[in-house]
Amino acid sequence: MPEFTRATINHKLAVVIPSYKVKKHILSVISSIGPEVDKIYVIDDHCPEKSGLYVEEHCNDPRVSTLFHNINQGVGGAVITGYQAAIKDDIDIVIKIDGDGQMDPTLIMDFVRPIIDGEADYTKGNRFFNLEKIKVMPKIRLFGNAVLSLITKLSSGYWNLFDPTNGFTAVHTSVIKNLPLNKLSKRYFFETDMLFRLNILRAVVIDIPMDAKYGDEVSNLKISKILKEFTIKHICNFSKRIFYNYYLRDMSLASIELPVGLFFILFGAIFGIYKWSDSLNYGLASTPGTVMLSALPVMLGLQLVLAFLAYDINSVPDKVYHRLRNIHRQRH
After folding, report:
1. What pLDDT does 219 receive?
2. CB 45 within 8 A of CB 78
3. Domain range spanning residue 311?
4. Alpha helices in the chain (DSSP H)
């Protein structure tokens, strides 16, 4: 593994660390960040432990800038504050890691290199590459991530990604500048909402393998509190993505397959339930023609919806956004 220094990287790098109840780990996280990074933004998200002041008092790293929120905004709000600070400082690539010690800062260049090489606009961690290492992950969290990954594929359009709530990320600032930061979810839905916004921008996102790591940190995420919120937001993002990509921005055969398929499924289901109810009420068996009139639209509808999904899966963004923008600037 080559050693990266400022002399070997022609990009300014910054790390954003949201800080909320991570006083115990924050200094060790900062000390593990290598010399390839130019700036480190510690965002004290109205932390009850006053972790921002703790960093200012005990950290001598000249790269560190501490920013404070007067009210708690959530992890997304903290990251957005870091993004805005990085843009002001003319940073090229921003890496986000947590302050609880779950993420290994020595992996930063693994996340940055695909962006530097023009292979991606945004990179994120995936703890599911090494099947042996994920055994340390709590079983309930493992199951939850698997289900959430499937739902996020559908709502975000990034069918090539897994582990959507992984907070170890890197992004090119030219992409950040073109995201509606004021519309991004500021709490636990932030990473997932970010993927939706990136898809609307048609940015290329790839997974970076990393190991699951769990110590004595305590998660502030309560599944029971965010289940309803996540469900509603996923439905909203899916609806917006389909409208933007298949009707507003462009139209294709898939734009017809989805509504027609859903209509046939709905018609067949309603007709079948209606006839089944009649059969129960009057004690009459449904004729083969009646059964087929219910079953055929459902089967045809399913085929059309599956055809749409196949098209959607093959439509994952593959042209690097920040690279295209640089080419456009050079031409003009």
Report:
1. 53
2. yes
3. 251-331
4. 26-31, 51-58, 74-88, 108-116, 139-156, 173-176, 190-201, 223-243, 253-282, 288-313, 321-331
